[in-house]
Amino acid sequence: MSVAAVDRTEATWSTLLALAILTVVLSVLSGPAGAAVGVATAAIWYAFGTPYALAGGHVALPVLFPDGIGPVALVAVFLAFLGVLVAPVVGTPRPIENAVVVLASVLGLAGITWLAASEGSLPIAAATLLSVVAVVAVAIHRYERVRLGLAWSSTEPETGAVDP
34 with 28: CB under 8 angstroms? Predict the structure, then answer.
């Protein structure tokens, strides 16, 4: 199995562009505080990576919009965050397929959470989301092990011995 090289420079520039767009969107919608959150999100991305930048940016949203957010502003903000999430796939060998997988995953998790939250119980929605994420994580882990040849078939006994 060969692993194709990923162009990190192209992925970095696309992510920086997505972070700049996020900062502009937040600035337009909430002024200087939005600009500060955008810059802080970029700093978190630089220090820790995309998942932490997304988490940090989302944690700041209630501070930026304490009285709630309109539907148009909500769509603009989440499209900007989605851009930050999808931007790193630009440098991969199959950027369109990877972007489709990312978008489908986001929409699927959002849909499941929304359906669970529509029942009116936040704890049920949170438990549902955590359960789905756990099942998906186990499935991805199993797929990785099979793909790398580290998983035994059900007909072969697992000896536990390590090859020298």
Answer: yes
pLDDT tens figures, 102-154? 889 888 888 888 888 787 778 888 888 889 889 888 988 888 888 788 876 56
Q: Give the CA angle between residues 84, 29, 115 to the nearest 5°.
A: 60
Q: Evaluate whether residue 61 is within a structural domain.
A: yes
Give the tens place of pLDDT for each residue, 41-87.
999 999 998 889 999 999 999 999 988 888 899 889 999 999 999 99
Which residue carries 């931007």 as its tokens?
Answer: 87
30: Cα within 13 Å, side-chain hemisphere = 24
Integer Rg of the chain from CA: 20
Per-residue three-class SS string for 39-74? HHHHHHHHHHCHHHHHHHHHHHHHHHCCCCCCHHHH
| pLDDT, tens digit (0-9, with 9 covering 90-100), for 14-53 | 999 999 999 999 999 999 999 999 999 999 999 998 889 9
Distance CA 151, CA 147 (A): 8
Please say which residue of 92, 108, 131 terminates a domain: 92
Say which DSSP state 118 is in: T
Per the structure, the complete domain to which residue 107 belongs is given by 94-155
Residue 162 lies in a domain: no
